[in-house]
Design goal:
Layout lengths: L1 H39 L9 H7 L3 H20 L8 H9 L1 H20 L4 H11 L9 H24 L6 H21 L3 H96 L1
């Protein structure tokens, strides 16, 4: 039973991980493209008209909020993990908004076509290129953000099916997830029709590469930690060596100090002895003179 729970947790983490990437992608679309374009609409510096913006970014803000909430719920679930946790209600909420989701995913297809047409628009090209060079974008183009938007539902379905496989058929979530997967699959096949299979392969391939990048990053971080520990050990060893050298030097200094003190003492003693001897000689001399 513990093994099953661990597997369910692992599959849920995958859904969380890719949903987080998706939500970040949506936020970038809103903040870097939608809002600046909307702000310039119907002004002298207009790049796209209000209608064009609404066509390209249909339901973007609403969908961003929807998936941000979905992400928060999954994150909370993972942080407060309990035996036989229930995730089904969150997918049920998505299912109830399926028409909005379908409308948004359809608009991304239109958006890519529209962006192709806008390539000849110099003002728009300058605008998008400037954003692409923004460090936040990491070199991603406007088109790539919409492609990622298209990929996500395929990836969600992919990992949800994996979660379903490790969920007991008696579990309350099982039936809900089955219904959601069927509904999602049906709508995606309608949206992409003959391109459905190729789009699915493209999406899964992209996110598997992303998984690999994340794993490599984790391994790199672990290597950095290991190197850091090794460096700390080397530093500690060096410090210990320096401390020992300092101690040795201190001992030598103390010994030298004692030797110098002894020499000084002997010198003083000899000086006193010489002085006494001189005094004795002088006294003897005086006595001899007196006797004469």
């Amino acid at each position: 039973m513990q093994v099953i729970e661990t597997l369910r947790q692992k599959k849920t983490k995958k859904i969380y991980q890719h949903t987080r990437n998706y939500v970040n992608n949506l936020y970038l679309l809103v903040n870097l493209y939608y809002r600046p374009l909307e702000k310039k609409a119907n002004t002298k510096s207009q790049i796209l008209s209000k209608n064009e913006i609404e066509e390209i970014f249909e339901n973007l803000k609403q969908i961003t909020i929807l998936f941000a909430e979905f992400l928060y719920n999954i994150e909370y679930l993972l942080l407060t993990w309990e035996k036989d946790y229930k995730i089904g209600e969150y997918f049920l909420h998505l299912k109830n908004r399926m028409q909005d989701l379908v409308s948004f995913w359809k608009s991304s297809i239109f958006a890519l076509k529209k962006l192709k047409e806008l390539e000849s628009n110099q003002t728009f090209s300058i605008f998008t290129e400037k954003i692409k060079n923004n460090l936040i974008c990491e070199g991603n183009s406007f088109e790539e953000y919409f492609l990622l938007t298209q990929y996500y539902p395929f990836v969600l379905k992919h990992y949800l099916k994996k979660l379903l496989l490790v969920t007991d058929t008696d579990h309350p979530d099982h039936q809900i997830m089955e219904i959601f997967i069927k509904d999602l699959n049906l709508n995606l096949s309608k949206i992409y029709s003959e391109n459905y299979k190729s789009k699915k392969i493209e999406a899964i391939s992209h996110f598997k590469n992303l998984d690999l990048q994340i794993e490599n990053k984790i391994n790199l971080d672990l290597d950095l930690v290991q190197n850091s520990k090794e460096n700390e050990i080397q530093i500690d060893e060096k410090e210990n060596k320096n401390d020992k050298q300092k101690e040795k030097k201190q001992v030598i200094n103390e010994e030298n100090k004692k030797i110098n003190e002894n020499l000084e003492e002997n010198e003083n003693q000899n000086e006193n002895e010489n002085k006494n001897e001189s005094e004795n000689l002088e006294e003897n001399k005086n006595q001899n003179e007196n006797q004469k």
